[in-house]
Automatic annotation (TrEMBL):
Pathway: Carbohydrate metabolism; tricarboxylic acid cycle; succinate from succinyl-CoA (ligase route): step 1/1; One-carbon metabolism; formaldehyde assimilation via serine pathway. Heterotetramer of two alpha and two beta subunits. It comes from Faunimonas pinastri. InterPro entries: ATP-grasp, ATP-grasp_succ-CoA_synth-type, ATP_grasp_subdomain_1, Succ-CoA_synthase_bsu_CS, SUCC_ACL_C, Succ_CoA_ligase-like_bsu, Succinyl-CoA_synth-like. It comes from the Bacteria. The gene is sucC. Substrate binds at residues 274, 331-333. Its cofactor is Mg(2+). Binds 1 Mg(2+) ion per subunit. GO terms for cellular component: cytosol; succinate-CoA ligase complex. Its EC number is 6.2.1.5. This is Succinate--CoA ligase [ADP-forming] subunit beta.
Amino acid sequence: MNIHEYQAKAILKSFGAPVSAGFPAFTPEEAAKAATDLPGPLWVVKSQIHAGGRGKGKFKESSAGEKGGVRLAKSIDEVREFASQMLGSTLVTHQTGPEGKKVNRIYVEDGSDIEKEFYLSLLVDRATAQVAFVVSTEGGMDIEAVAEHTPEKIVTFSVDPATGFLPHHGRHIASAFGLKGDLAKQAAKVGATLYKAFVAKDMSLLEVNPLIVTKDGRLVCLDAKMGFEDNALFRHPDEVELRDLTEEDAKEIEASKYELSYIALDGTIGCMVNGAGLAMATMDIIKLYGEEPANFLDVGGGASKEKVTAAFKIITSDPNVKGILVNIFGGIMRCDIIAEGVLAAVKEVGLQVPLVVRLEGTNVEKGKEILRDSGLNVIPADNLDDAAQKIVSAVRGAK
């Protein structure tokens, strides 16, 4: 689960991290009021969407102006004007895709006098089961671009959760930034604070880009991006309340209600599979034969008929889906349950696209019998390779 910048900064502030003063706003009037409550004389008006690259982004609407999703205002009237242009407009960045994201809220922040910009992030290193720090002097830039063109400017190290953040980790951060004296002490303190917040809130990602040095010698987290481990959200009801459903795919929201692992993709072949590894293999073989998967969907090992029905309905709700591949290896998940769920969903929403079903495992013959006797135009498949070729052929024939 991701949250907005202003929400992330509020969490960081609660742990003692240095952040600029600011207020969220949902209307131009609220934005102007926020500016009056800040010192000024410069204010930063920031579009709040779950995507990076906002400053370099472009709005689809010509009325939104040409200055991107992060703008510097020199008067309260400008704050109101920028807020009016941004709110309700669609911002396109390199992370949103061409469809962009609608701006429903903004963040008005006190301006900062910047001397230097750094990059600092924390994430879970699954290979070592430790928290990894990624540090760079190239703040304000896309870290992917830095990694591609100047990888030597990125420093990484891990913190063992058994020991936690230690003084030498802080010195490592300060050294990577080239900081000395009081600024080095501030860098170490910021690193310790961010680590504490990361672990306490069960984050999967914490990115500060940029972490700035102001001209009066202070380190400030000028931006913040947070992601939380979904499986730990039950421990953090306060963070769950921060979820903005308007930023998420409606199909993914519906899938979460049934505890389905679903991720929307850009292809034309909908996939219903049990097991993450089998789902990945199914998507790979669809690509091998020249088409693209429309989703990742793992119904799990012990899904009920209701879950399978919900999964099928979610797939068919995607207008880009031109064919469906059901690939089930029945272990705990019985093939007859899959068949009954597919039939229930088809009866409710109809079947407008080709459907290829490959079943194997527990109660496979019973599952095949249910589908065969249903009267549906289901294309049976003997194995995964056969299934992939048949659904790709069916989709291309329907184009």
